[in-house]
Specification:
The complex is a heterodimer of chains A (895) and B (110).
Chain A: H1 2-17, H2 19-43, H3 48-59, H4 62-73, H5 76-94, H6 96-125, E1 136-142, E2 152-153, H7 154-163, E3 167-181, E4 187-194, H8 198-202, E5 208-209, E6 223-227, H9 229-236, E7 246-249, E8 252-259, E9 276-279, H10 287-292, E10 294-302, H11 308-324, E11 336-341, H12 342-347, H13 350-382, H14 384-392, H15 397-433, H16 442-445, H17 452-477, H18 482-487, H19 495-531, E12 541-546, H20 556-571, E13 576-582, E14 592-594, E15 612-617, H21 621-625, E16 629-632, E17 646-650, H22 651-657, E18 667-669, E19 681-688, E20 704-707, E21 719-725, H23 733-743, E22 749-754, H24 755-762, H25 764-798, H26 800-808, H27 813-842, H28 858-884, H29 888-893
Parallel strand pairs in A: 4-9, 6-8, 15-20, 17-19
Antiparallel strand pairs in A: 1-10, 1-11, 2-10, 3-4, 3-7, 3-10, 5-8, 6-9, 7-8, 12-21, 12-22, 13-21, 14-15, 16-19, 17-20, 18-19
Chain B: H1 12-23, E1 26-27, H2 28-38, H3 47-60, E2 63-69, E3 75-81, H4 83-109
Antiparallel strand pairs in B: 1-3, 2-3
Helix pairs in contact in B: 1-2, 1-4
The chains are: A alpha+beta (895), B alpha+beta (110).
Chain lengths: 895, 110
């Protein structure tokens, strides 16, 4: 059987490639046959002429036998396809305008799909670039079932390591920042504290040097560190001798034991790359700290055959058992264990965004298909006669359909080739655009590129596309009476075709509307976002971070002296209007939170009220960033360590703590603040305006402000300087830096950015979504405008004769235009209604991307309807006007 | 006379060609003459069917062509049975015998 198949294929192929040879052999064979027959008849007594004629008569048509043999050889189908392709190429070359329009349309549709798919492929389909990635899970704790999982206390991690049966390995990490100091100056770097098995569990080995050992991962041993490849190149000149050298991190000495490979990336909520890796060295004896602080992030490797859900219930059991053994005075922790696949955790919300984008590009592809189908229909009408003739010459209907489909496929694959090139560029643009976070954490780990799966996807899309738009013209082929078509000279404007075309036009308008409404909602969201008053001013503000060395500035008075001097020097720079300092700029994470209470109100530790973010600011901070004073006063230079402790509340906080009362002069307890002997309370001296501290799209957060000069808890943390300038803030950055260096060369200055830039980065992912969906909607609008134009132009051309008659009978140009446009508008109106209905049902899918606007926002729906109607009207009007300009005499003669 | 000739049922031509070639390799004309002779002129192979059939059988790998010299010293394409062709012939012959016997039985006794 198998043998037979092989011989079959070999024979067909050799017959195909040795076509001329096979054919001439056959001819010689048939001639020989004829001669034998002639000889036979001569022997029977016929004259040579008679014999020849008889033999030829019996033999039948030479051509027919040749053709039948071809069929028997099994090459006729292949040959027909090759023939069709050749013919198709000729037709495409003969109609360059048609070909270019069709290929470009398809390239847009297929290219957009390929580009988005390559991102989907890289982020969702491909496994993580670690060893056996499907077994990797992220382990966290969350309070409610659908709350995101968060970090866990060290005690729980230690319990799980000791007792878990469902996990092969458990590793922990904790992100932090550190100051690397040395001869080249000090620099603030992201550091990841990891358990010794963290890197081996991911299957990562250092490029040079060794991995962490469990001996490194102990408290009270000499510090060791691994560095990223980037830092190794930048700070150490890729010198192999870096291994074994010591570096100083936060004034502690660490020995470099390894350099990580360049292609290794680990991303979490905090950073997309870490420069320094040091052992976690969790101290098991620090029971209280391990119990109280949720500072560990945990990942694990499931045992084969174990699901995340099974592991989760096991870890939860272990956690509950551990909690029950704790003394009663330990604060109970009610976070439940969460185990999710690491890939899913990293993908997060990106999955939804990608599905929305895939949906958008599929709509574009559909519009492209409809457009090309329309083009083919118009051309199909012109070719009606050709097909009729071929059909009467004996071509079967299937054969004709095969030819038309071949031509469609040819177009689709040429379009796909251009589409691939386009997708290549698009994908790179996407990756660049998404660098500021468009595709979330996962994009820092995965690499977007083209692989065999992307190419396969493009091929399949091209094939489906070709079949889709190739279908329309073949449908009509089966309808008309071919004889009539020949007689009419190809002008058989069948009712059927007109109906098909208007159906396509309606489809196109419908699809475009859906995309436009989506984009319109995103535009409205973005405008809403930009119009949000953040409660502070971002223009002409330069910001930077300074991290004072703990060793050089041990006492609050030393820090105060530095800040006073630095702020004074910065203020003296020409162009600087004012300068302030804070430990938590708007749009950054709060550094500290505290539970606030009034003296009369007992603190209830069981009630998990959210802590209020505590901001430590210099006296001029509010004036510098223009947070308005609502009542009371700002901090002054006199609110220092010697003066009574004072606080300023944000308006929202004041209202919630003292409803219907004046908060000024009231006292509150100061948990988490500097505990001052003799005075457990602090006095409220001012109320300032609310800010959108967490982001423009977030709610106003309550804030409590402390005076930097009072040297409270946390004034040693890095401070942000805000400088209000009368000039372009970027021009004074160098001068500011120099002034700080003049006081202190040991403390690193970084994150130098304008406040406007920070604000703009905070909406970067929304801008990215808008840019993408808006771009796709624009393409959809352009494609459908071209489509409507094409349909109207063709319909007008078909009716040239009729227009001539109408005009000869006295119709005015405007009547003709009204007639033609009116016909198109009917279909457009149907499309608009269908599209708006579709959008009304579909836009809830993008609800999570919207801000300040409902998914069925009537203003957006209405304006999209109007815009599309206007564009479509124009697309109808232009060809209609041209048709109406025709000279009636010419029109009447028009054939 | 021509009207009395029998039309070959579908598929039997392949069987006859294979059977003819089982005796010795033969060229196209030879095959058609042989079939005609042996069947006492009752069966005549139309060229229009013969050559496509020869190509079909080649495709299946049951016969293969080779160039030889004919009786009158002309170069001619001879066809010969392949190993698998011989096997196939055996099977087909058996099937044919069973079929005709069965059909005959029905015709005799029904």
């Amino acid at each position: 059987m198998f043998n037979g198949l092989i011989s079959d294929i070999c024979f067909r192929l050799s017959a195909l490639f040795r076509r001329t040879e096979t054919e001439s052999e056959l001819r010689a064979e048939l001639n020989a046959h004829l001669e034998y027959a002639t000889e036979k008849y001569i022997k029977q007594g016929m004259s040579p002429d008679q014999a020849k004629r008889r033999a030829a008569l019996e033999f039948g048509g030479l051509e027919q036998i040749t053709e039948e043999c071809r069929e028997a050889r099994g090459v006729s189908h292949l040959e027909a396809i090759i023939q069709d392709i050749r013919y198709g190429v000729r037709m495409l070359i003969k109609n360059p305008v048609f070909t270019v329009v069709a290929v470009m349309t398809l390239a847009l549709g297929i290219g957009a799909n390929t580009a988005i798919f390559s991102v989907v492929n890289a982020l969702l389909l491909r496994p993580l670039p670690y060893a056996n990635p499907v077994q990797l899970v992220s382990i966290g704790e969350g309070e409610a079932q659908n709350q995101p999982s968060e970090s866990v206390p060290g005690a729980h991690y230690l319990e799980w390591v000791a007792h878990s049966q469902t996990l092969d390995q458990i590793a922990a990490f904790a992100p932090n920042e550190t100051t690397l100091s040395g001869a080249d100056g000090a620099e603030k770097l992201k550091v990841l504290l990891v358990s010794a098995n963290f890197l081996p569990m991911l299957g990562v080995n250092p490029e040079i040097g060794r991995n962490f050992l469990s001996a490194d991962d102990q408290p009270d041993v000499d510090g060791v560190a691994m560095i990223s490849n980037g830092l190794w190149q930048r700070r150490f000149g890729s010198d192999k001798k870096t291994i074994g050298q010591t570096i100083t991190l936060d004034n502690h000495t660490f020995t470099v034991i390894g350099v990580l490979p360049p292609d290794f990336h680990f991303a979490d909520n905090f950073a997309d790359s870490y420069d320094i890796w040091v052992p976690l060295a969790l101290d098991q004896k620090q029971e209280y700290g391990n119990q109280i602080f949720h500072f560990l992030h945990v990942i694990g490797r499931l045992k084969p055959g174990v699901t995340p859900a099974q592991s989760q219930s096991e870890l939860e059991t272990i956690r509950i058992r551990y909690q029950s053994t704790r003394p009663a005075n330990f604060m109970p922790l009610d976070g439940q264990a969460r185990v999710t696949s690491l890939h899913d955790k990293l993908v997060g919300d990106t999955r939804q965004l990608l599905f929305i984008l895939l949906g958008a590009v599929s709509l574009i592809l559909l519009i492209a298909c409809v457009n090309v189908a329309n083009l083919l229909l118009s051309r199909g009408a012109a070719r009606q006669r050709e097909f009729a003739i071929r059909s009467s010459l004996g071509a079967g209907r299937l054969r004709l359909i095969q030819q038309m489909l071949t031509e469609s496929m040819l177009l689709a694959f040429i379009g796909a080739a251009f589409g691939l090139a386009l997708a290549f560029g698009l994908t790179r643009a996407l990756v660049t655009l998404s660098a500021s976070g468009g595709f979330g954490q996962i994009s820092h780990v995965a690499t977007v590129n083209f692989d065999i799966r992307v190419l396969g996807f493009t091929l399949v899309v091209a094939f489906v596309t070709g079949a889709l738009f190739g279908l329309a013209p073949t449908l009509q082929l089966s309808r008309p009476n071919l004889n009539d078509t020949i007689k009419q000279g190809g002008h058989g404007t069948s009712f059927y075709r007109a109906r098909l075309r208007s159906l396509l036009m309606v489809t196109e308008v419908t699809l475009a509307i859906v995309l436009l409404v989506g984009a319109g909602l995103l535009i409205r969201s973005f405008v809403n976002l930009l119009e949000v008053d953040p409660g502070y001013r971002a223009d002409n503000r330069l910001t930077m971070r300074i991290s004072l060395s703990d060793q050089l500035y041990q006492k609050p008075s030393q820090r105060n002296a530095f800040y006073r001097e630095a702020l004074r020097r910065i203020l003296s720079i020409p162009g600087v209007r004012s300068v302030g300092a804070t430990n938590s700029l708007p749009l950054s994470r709060p550094v500290f939170s505290a539970y606030l209470a009034t003296p009369g109100q007992a603190q209830d530790p069981d009630e998990h009220q959210a802590g209020v973010p505590v901001e430590i600011v210099s006296p001029d901070y509010f004036r510098t960033i223009e947070i308005p004073l609502k009542s009371g006063r700002f901090f002054t230079e006199r609110d220092d360590a010697q003066a009574p402790a004072v606080v300023i509340l944000s308006e929202a906080l004041a209202k919630s703590m003292f409803p219907n009362e004046d908060a000024i002069g009231k006292e509150i307890l100061q948990p988490g603040f500097p505990q001052r002997p003799g005075s457990p309370t602090v006095k409220i001296v001012g109320i300032v305006g609310d800010t959108k501290h967490d982001g423009q799209d977030k709610d106003v957060t309550p804030q409590v402000y402390l005076s930097l000069l009072q040297g409270g808890f946390g004034s040693s943390a890095p401070m942000m300087f805000v400088i209000h300038t009368g000039v372009d803030p970027t021009t004074i950055a160098a001068a500011v830096w120099n002034q700080i260096l003049a006081i202190d060369k040991q403390s690193p200055v970084d994150e130098i950015q304008t406040m406007e830039n920070r604000l703009s980065n905070s909406v970067a992912s929304r801008r990215f979504n808008l840019l993408l969906l808006g771009g796709f909607a624009f393409i959809a609008l352009a494609l459908s405008a071209v489509g409507v134009y094409g349909v109207t132009a063709y319909a007008a051309e078909q009716r040239t004769h009729e227009i001539g008659i109408r005009m000869a009978l006295g119709a005015q140009r405007n009547d003709i235009i009204t007639m033609l446009v009116g016909q198109g508008m009917g279909q457009i109106a149907i499309g608009v209604v269908l599209g708006l209905t579709g959008a009304w049902m579909l836009t809830r899918l993008i609800k999570s991307l919207l801000f300040g606007v409902g998914a069925t926002d009537p203003i957006t729906l209405a304006s999209v309807g109007v815009v599309l109607t206007l564009v479509a009207l124009l697309a109808c009007y232009i060809p209609a006007r041209r048709a109406a300009r025709v000279n009636p005499i010419k029109a009447l003669r028009y054939e | 006379m021509e009207n009395e000739r029998l039309e070959l049922p579908q598929g039997t031509l392949d069987l006859l060609i294979l059977r003819t070639l089982a005796l010795e390799p033969q060229h196209g004309w030879g095959i058609s003459e042989r079939i005609q002779q042996i069947s006492s002129n009752a069966l005549q192979v139309r060229q229009g069917s013969l050559y496509p059939a020869l190509h079909r059988l080649q495709r299946r790998g049951w016969i293969k062509p080779k160039w030889g010299t004919s009786e009158n010293n002309r170069k001619a394409k001879y066809y010969e049975l392949t190993q698998s062709g011989r096997k196939h012939l055996e099977i087909e012959e058996n099937l044919w015998r069973q079929l005709t016997a069965a059909v005959g039985q029905v015709l005799e006794n029904a």
